[in-house]
Amino acid sequence: MSVLTKPVGSTSWLPLIMRIILGVAFFAHGAQKVLGWYGGNGLQLTVTQFENGLGIPYFLGYLAAYTEFIGGIFLILGFATRIASIGIFIEMIVAVWLVHFPKGYFLNSPSGGMGFEYNLALVGLAFAITLTGPGHISLDYQLFEAAYHHHERPLGDVHFVHR
């Protein structure tokens, strides 16, 4: 039964895998908003649509676009990981509340809208990254390795860094 209850092999790859999955998704969506890549509208039109369509003030529209773009890059690199994942977590909670929740749960909702199921998965992944941290395969770990060894307190397979 231990095969079913214990991790197989090293768990040091898990934070990297989670960061890359979430980071690539948010880099792509952020690049649509900030740069107009991948069929996106670019920064000015995106921020205007947030203001006119959702009532989101311009500065929060800019903050959301750059949170996705820079946060995605930071997650991929494992730099300022918890800050990036908390920003993405908050942004997705707002997206669920303002846009997706009224359209139902399912992504391909019968009402024709995009429900919140995908966003909920992103919220969960961002929360998991916030709890587990960047892992050993990250710029955070490479830059602050001494702090990790000095202040790390294990909690099962999850490690919290106290500063």
Domain count: 1
CA radius of gyration is: 18 Å
Strand line-up of the largest beta sheet: 1-2
Strand content: under 5%
Q: Which segments are poorly predicted (pLDDT under 50) over 5 or more consecutive residues?
A: 153-157
Characterize the biggest β-sheet: 2 strands, antiparallel
Judging from the principal axes of the Cα atoms, what is the shape?
globular
Distance between the termini: 38 Å
Question: How does the helix and strand content classify structurally?
Answer: mainly alpha
Helix content: 55-70%
Overall mean pLDDT stands at 88
Number of strands: 2
User: Helical stretch count?
Assistant: 8
Quaternary state of the chains: single chain
| Helix-strand pattern | HHHHHHHHEE
Descriptors:
163 residues, mainly alpha, 8 helices, 2 strands
Concise summary:
This protein has 163 residues and is mainly alpha-helical. It contains eight helices and two strands; from the N terminus they run H-H-H-H-H-H-H-H-E-E. The model is unreliable at 153-157 (pLDDT under 50).
What is the secondary structure topology, with strand pairs?
Elements lengths: L1 H4 L7 H23 L7 H12 L3 H20 L3 H20 L16 H16 L6 H5 L1 H7 E4 L2 E4 L2
Antiparallel strand pairs: 1-2
Helix pairs in contact: 2-3, 2-4, 2-6, 3-4, 4-5, 5-6
Overview of this protein structure:
The protein is mainly alpha-helical and 163 residues long. It has one domain. Helix content is 66%, strand content 5%. The chain has a two-stranded antiparallel ribbon. Strand 1 and strand 2 form a beta hairpin. The radius of gyration is 18 Å and the shape is globular. It starts with a helix and ends with a strand. About 3% of the residues have low confidence.
